[in-house]
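TICKET: design request
STATUS: open
ATTACHED STRUCTURE:
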């Protein structure tokens, strides 16, 4: 592997692939085993779907800052990865403010509805956690994105949500990972007519590379963008108009009515009273070389700094990268951190 990749000596992370297409030395995997290094000088963006990464790049090229780009990518993932998240889901956010040299988190995670007490839940659903909307929480992600834009961003909601709106309205090709999820979830989706209408085609799983459009979601994003454009005042007032429509206006009433009609405890007052919190991060220092920041215990965030703190007590380099002993130590550290969390 001498020329094929440069490695972090402790964790064995491939940092750079070979640029020589003829580099196929005996006993060494060729460069096709690695993604090529992507280098730049002005900015970098990464997301779990390339179209979301493209949305972040679009905002950065237009003069937006990292938060504008991050919100644009996050909203896109709510369209592109409905099996992982959605616009009505959650948004754990970590922001580094370079000017102040400070790290903050936004707890874009909704709370349980006020009526969802343990007694009320078990009376209605016994000791089960039923499929679908009955176990929904307040959709906290939207306010998380808006808080991040308001505090650290430079662009308006209309601009940062435009890529997500376009993906919802115009559609995108169903990719292998999403097709796998659709096949795995088809039986459950058929029990939810409004979801089946979006993600299935006449009750069947659409084939890979077919175009998925989410027109109702596009209309919702357009309504939010229109509320911003129609509002009086400056940037803060316009962002507040988006928040008001989603959490206190017509969209909030529509969400609450739908939730109540389908067995959820979610009510209008839960939406109207919700605010995403800005909090200090969880943090650990690893071997006096790295500071690792994460969101708080309301999400999975603390698991990584906790696991790193455990791993400080082991000679990972001495165990050898990917040896059984090395992997065992990593797995056990993660198990302990997850159990504590």
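STATUS: resolved
RESOLUTION: sequence designed for all positions
ATTACHED SEQUENCE:
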């Amino acid at each position: 592997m001498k020329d094929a990749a440069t490695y972090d000596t402790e964790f064995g992370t491939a940092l750079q692939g070979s640029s020589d297409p003829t580099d196929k030395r005996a006993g060494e995997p060729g460069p096709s085993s690695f993604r090529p290094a992507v280098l730049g000088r002005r900015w970098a963006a990464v997301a779990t779907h390339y179209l979301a990464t493209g949305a972040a790049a679009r905002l950065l090229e237009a003069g937006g800052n990292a938060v504008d780009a991050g919100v644009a990518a996050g909203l896109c993932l709510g369209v592109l990865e409905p099996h992982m998240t959605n616009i009505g889901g959650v948004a754990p956010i970590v922001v580094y403010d370079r000017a102040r040299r400070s790290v903050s988190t936004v707890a874009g995670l909704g709370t349980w509805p006020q009526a969802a007490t343990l007694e009320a839940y078990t009376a209605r659903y016994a000791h089960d956690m039923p499929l679908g909307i009955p176990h929904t929480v307040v959709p906290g992600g939207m306010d998380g994105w808006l808080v991040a834009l308001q505090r650290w961003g430079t662009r308006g909601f209309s601009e940062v949500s435009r890529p997500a709106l376009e993906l919802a309205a115009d559609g995108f090709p169903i990719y292998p990972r999403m097709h796998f999820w659709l096949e795995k979830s088809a039986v459950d989706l058929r029990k939810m007519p409004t979801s089946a209408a979006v993600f299935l085609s006449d009750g069947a799983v659409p084939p890979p590379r077919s175009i998925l459009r989410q027109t109702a979601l596009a209309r919702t994003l357009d309504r939010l963008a229109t509320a911003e454009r129609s509002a009086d005042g400056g940037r803060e007032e316009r962002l507040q108009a988006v928040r008001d429509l989603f959490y206190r206006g017509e969209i909030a009433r529509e969400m609450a009515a739908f939730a109540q009609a389908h067995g959820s405890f979610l009510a209008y007052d839960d939406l109207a009273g919700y605010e995403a919190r800005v909090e200090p991060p969880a943090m650990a220092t690893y071997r006096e070389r790295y500071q690792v920041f994460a969101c708080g215990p309301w999400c999975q965030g603390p698991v990584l700094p906790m696991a790193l703190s455990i791993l400080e007590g082991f000679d990972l380099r001495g165990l050898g990268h990917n040896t059984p002993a090395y992997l065992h130590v990593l797995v056990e550290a993660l198990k302990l951190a997850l159990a504590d969390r």
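CLOSING REMARK: The CA atoms of residues 15 and 333 lie 24 Å apart. Confidence is low (pLDDT under 50) at residues 1-31.
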